[in-house]
């Protein structure tokens, strides 16, 4: 069942966060649905601009439609991740997405407001909800690339003004995370002090954490042992998700960790089975491993075991 992120956030606020997972292909899609049903969690499917052009946007949409039929008990939102204005309009007009993100955070404050407001007006006219971003995360993820020196934490005072003037439904905030596998060095971590201030300015308003992969060191070590060269990667402590949820974070974006699982599975499989040339055996291994990964993340987010609770709330509203 496809729902809006607004419906999921209403159920989750202050108690847990919803996992937002990026997908690019069939294997990720199947593993994602299985993992969320195994853990009985609502979730958000994220499709990036890069994923839409990897094969074709209609291919990904068809995979999700098929999964919705194969797994009728699943409850999820379909969300455009890091969209520019043109891509947002394309997704809004497609009639398939229930949520879009307009990322104009690289623009100055007034321009960000103007662009976001235009997207909000177009989306709300179609019953689609909008995530916006204020502040800038460093790091690299697909077409998003920001030097760490240019990263900017979200100003809590401006966050309130931004939401009031744009009418956006949720806000991605910069509180110390970054995109990619190289998030932190030394003792760096999440700025809960900034998050607390933002929540005070926007009580009850859904906040979003981008760049929240934990970059499990076991995955990195196994990748490197199987021929990889990922050195010094470090991510967000997944035990911090629940505290963030208590401070208004209702959506946590996780992409890099899924890529690490894919890399580890493929490197180890071909190391151990050099004679193999069939893509299906390794695909089955990945789907199972990805499902386990998703279920584990949902436990850390607090969304595991919440599916029927969310279903009841949605049915009551209907």
Q: Any key phrases for this structure?
A:
single chain; 318 residues; alpha/beta; TIM Barrel; three-stranded mixed β-sheet; 13 helices; globular
Average of the residue pLDDT scores: 91
Q: How many helices does DSSP assign?
A: 13
CATH topology: TIM Barrel
Order of helices and strands: HEHEHHEHEHEEEHEEHEHHEHHH
Main sheet strand line-up: 1-2-3-4-5-8-10-11
Give Rg in angstroms: 19 Å
CATH superfamily: Aldolase class I
Ends apart, CA distance between termini: 13 Å
CATH class, anyone?
Answer: Alpha Beta
| Largest β-sheet summary | 8 strands, parallel, barrel
Total number of β-strand segments? 11
The CATH architecture category equals Alpha-Beta Barrel
How much of the polypeptide forms β-strand, as a percent range? 15-25%
Helical amount among residues, as a percent range? 40-55%
Class computed from helices, strands and strand pairing: alpha/beta
Q: Give unreliable regions as ranges.
A: 143-150, 183-187
Report the principal-axis shape: globular
């Amino acid at each position: 069942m496809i729902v809006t992120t607004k419906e999921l956030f209403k159920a989750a606020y202050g108690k847990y966060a919803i996992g937002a997972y990026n997908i690019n292909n069939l294997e990720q899609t199947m593993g994602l649905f299985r993992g969320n049903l195994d853990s009985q969690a609502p979730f958000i499917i994220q499709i990036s601009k890069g994923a839409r052009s990897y094969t074709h946007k209609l291919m990904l949409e068809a995979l999700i439609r098929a999964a919705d039929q194969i797994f009728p008990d699943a409850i999820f939102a379909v969300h455009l991740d890091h969209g520019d204005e043109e891509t947002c309009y394309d997704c809004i007009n497609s009639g398939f997405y229930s949520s879009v993100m307009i990322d104009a955070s690289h623009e100055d404050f007034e321009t960000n407001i103007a662009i976001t407001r235009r997207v909000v007006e177009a989306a709300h006219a179609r019953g689609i909800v909008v995530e916006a971003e204020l502040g800038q995360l460093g790091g690299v993820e697909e077409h998003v690339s920001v030097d760490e020196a240019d990263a900017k934490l979200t100003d809590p005072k401006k966050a309130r003004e931004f939401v009031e003037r744009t009418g956006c439904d949720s806000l991605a905030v910069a509180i110390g995370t970054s995109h990619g596998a190289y998030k932190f060095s030394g003792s760096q971590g999440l700025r809960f002090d900034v998050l607390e201030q933002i929540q005070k300015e926007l009580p009850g308003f859904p906040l979003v954490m981008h760049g929240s992969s934990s970059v499990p060191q076991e995955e990195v070590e196994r990748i490197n042992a199987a021929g990889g060269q990922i050195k010094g990667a470090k991510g967000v402590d997944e035990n911090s998700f629940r505290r963030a949820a208590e401070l208004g974070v209702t959506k946590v974006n996780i992409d890099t960790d899924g890529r690490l699982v894919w890399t580890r599975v493929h490197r180890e499989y071909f190391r151990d089975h050099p004679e193999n040339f069939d893509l299906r055996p390794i695909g089955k291994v990945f789907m199972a491993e990805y499902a386990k990964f998703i279920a584990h993340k949902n436990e850390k987010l607090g969304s595991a075991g919440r599916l029927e609770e969310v279903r009841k709330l949605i049915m009551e509203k209907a």
